[in-house]
Design brief:
With about 550 residues, the chain is of the alpha/beta class. The chain is about 50% helix and about 20% strand. It has three domains: about 10-135, Response regulator (Rossmann fold, 3-Layer(aba) Sandwich), CATH 3.40.50.2300; about 155-310, GAF domain (Beta-Lactamase, 2-Layer Sandwich), CATH 3.30.450; about 395-553, Heat Shock Protein 90, CATH 3.30.565.10.
């Protein structure tokens, strides 16, 4: 029904003369009036046109006024009906009111009827306006109560847990219900590469279809645009919008028709985007936009809190692991330092007590032993310092490293070992470019090569090489001809408390592989060993390709 403008009235009356007089009178009052001379014509007009009021003769032929009234009563959007009765028939009027008529008017004398009718029409229209306004107010109150209940439920769910996965799962389910859509999703910045947004959670057609494979470059898609411009976007036709990323639909098998996306902002920083897809009732409204922004405020705080808790848990786990490692290191280093220190003290004490009576050769041999084990203790201290520097909190910036230059420098450092053990080292013709930190990688190759020489075959034969794991990962390796290793968990070699015992001709303080592990872990790669008794060993580490770009670690 129109609240403003000319009201449109349908008059169902079979007497043409009376109908035209009424039509003319009401048009003088500013109404638009259509006339139907029988019930069939009237119903046909109702199907084609929207009316604000129906004037109905209960005795109109074809269908009959009361039958028409009964039919209109079953329609929720039917206009009000004013019954116009030629005779003073109270029974018919009462039945009409029972069937849903808004009011009735006995026609009486035509002149009086024409004078009275405009006031009755105006009263009926005003009554209908008041009724519709009350219904709108009640509907708004019901909507407000529903929204408040859902927002309260959302707040309770989001504050009931600080687990990120639970927050995401609960969030997309409830917000889909709040805004009344087919689905919703949460997109957050990729922690590994802030040039991408990843889908942290997705709920479509009543199912959680979250996938870690859904990633978008930050400059693509509606969510990318929203994250960049920090603005809400309401897209009525997704396929026609140039910002729409159709590749996501290809991966999910879903058809996106409309989108409402809003930035997730906390402490004036965009942490992601909340996206609603396919409004179930028509298009997204201004009220939907307001609700989406309210929900986004709740969600941003909850996600930030869950992220902080995840960070606390990770730091706790790191501290626990570091404490365990420190205990192991303390035990291992104390043991490894004690043996050479005991020998140094022993030989020094012996020289002090018997130096005057010792042959010169024996004195020199004792001094050589003291120097040898002093150097060994110095090496242990150097290893500890390297381990401490890698495990420290100072960030370093990775870059494309020249692995050929690094391995050549390491071979120069261990040239004396190569000569002493008559080792053979085979290098690849060329090296791929990887992302790393040169000084640390030099220590990795130093430990792998020196271990390969000390613990390999006799004479040791070492081969260095690499494999492409995938488009962004390279595996570097060193293969030896040693006796091989028999361990249920080869990764135990990279923890000092579990290192494999060597025979008496083999030396080493066991911190080398721990250093390798910590360096490569810091650079975002992995370490490992492939070995079987009698078949040698292959130690490896992985790094990102240079195409990944620089990063601080």
């Amino acid at each position: 029904m129109r609240v403003t403008g000319k009201a449109h009235i349908l008059y169902m009356e079979n007497h043409l003369t009376s109908a035209r007089l009424v039509q003319a009178k009401l048009q003088q009052e500013g109404y638009v009036v259509d006339v139907a001379l029988d019930g069939a014509e009237g119903l046909d007009k109702l199907e084609k046109q929207t009316y604000d009021l129906i004037l109905l003769d209960p005795h109109i032929p074809m269908q009959g006024g009361l039958n028409i009234l009964q039919s209109l009563a079953s329609q929720s959007s039917a206009p009000p009906v004013l019954l116009i009765e030629e005779e003073h028939d109270v029974q018919t009027a009462a039945l009409a009111l029972k069937l849903g008529a808004s009011d009735y008017l006995f026609q009486g004398r035509l002149e009086e009827h024409l004078q009275l009718l405009p006031a009755v029409v105006a009263r009926t229209l005003e009554k209908q306006r008041s009724h519709l306004k009350r219904e709108e107010t009640l509907q708004a109150l019901r909507q407000d109560n529903r929204d408040l209940a859902l927002l309260t439920r959302l707040a309770q769910l989001l504050t009931s847990t600080l687990d990120m996965d639970q927050v995401m799962s609960q969030l997309v389910r409830v917000i889909t219900e709040i805004v009344i859509t087919e689905g919703s999703s949460v997109w957050l910045w990729d922690e590994q590469n802030e040039n991408y947004l990843i889908c942290a959670s997705m709920f479509l057609d009543g199912k959680d279809i979250t996938s870690d494979k859904l990633r978008l470059p930050a400059d693509q898609g509606v969510v990318g645009w929203v994250a960049k411009h920090r603005q809400l976007v309401n897209v009525e036709d997704a396929a026609a919008d140039p910002r729409f990323a159709a590749a996501i639909d290809s991966k999910t098998g879903y058809t996106t028709k409309s989108i409402l996306a809003v930035p997730l902002i906390t402490h004036n920083r965009v942490i992601g985007v909340l996206e609603f897809v396919n409004k179930l009732q028509d298009h997204f409204t201004q009220r939907d936009c307001e609700m989406a922004e309210t929900v986004a405020a709740y969600a941003a705080n909850a996600i930030e809190n869950a992220g902080l808790m995840n960070s606390v848990r990770q730091q706790r786990d790191v501290l626990e692991a570091q404490n365990e490692a420190l205990d192991a290191f303390a035990h291992s280093v104390a043991h490894d330092l004690k043996n050479p220190l005991t020998l140094v003290v022993g030989f020094a004490d012996m020289l002090r007590e018997t130096f005057s009576g010792m042959p010169e050769d024996a004195v020199l041999q004792s001094l050589d032993t003291i120097v040898e084990y002093g150097i060994k203790m110095s090496s242990i201290v150097d290893a500890l310092l390297m381990l401490a520097s890698v495990g420290g909190g100072n960030l370093v910036e990775t870059e494309a490293v020249d692995m050929e230059q690094i391995t050549k420098e390491v071979l120069r450092r261990i040239e004396h070992m190569v000569n002493e053990y008559q080792a053979e080292v085979k290098l690849p013709d060329e090296w791929p470019s990887a992302q790393g930190y040169g000084p640390w990688l030099e220590e990795v190759w130093y430990n792998y090569l020196s271990n390969g020489i000390k613990y390999g075959g006799r004479p040791p034969r070492l081969e260095l090489g690499y494999d492409l794991v995938d488009s962004v990962t390279i595996r570097f390796w060193i293969k030896d001809n040693g006796p091989g290793i028999n361990l249920e968990d080869p990764m135990q070699l990279f923890t000092p408390q579990s290192r494999k015992k060597r025979d008496k001709t083999q030396s080493g303080h066991g911190l080398g592989l721990s250093i390798v592990h910590r360096i490569i872990d810091r650079l975002g790669g992995q370490v490992g060993v492939v070995s079987q008794p009698g078949q040698g060993s292959l130690f490896f580490f992985t790094l990102a390709t240079a195409s990944v770009g620089t990063n601080k670690v």
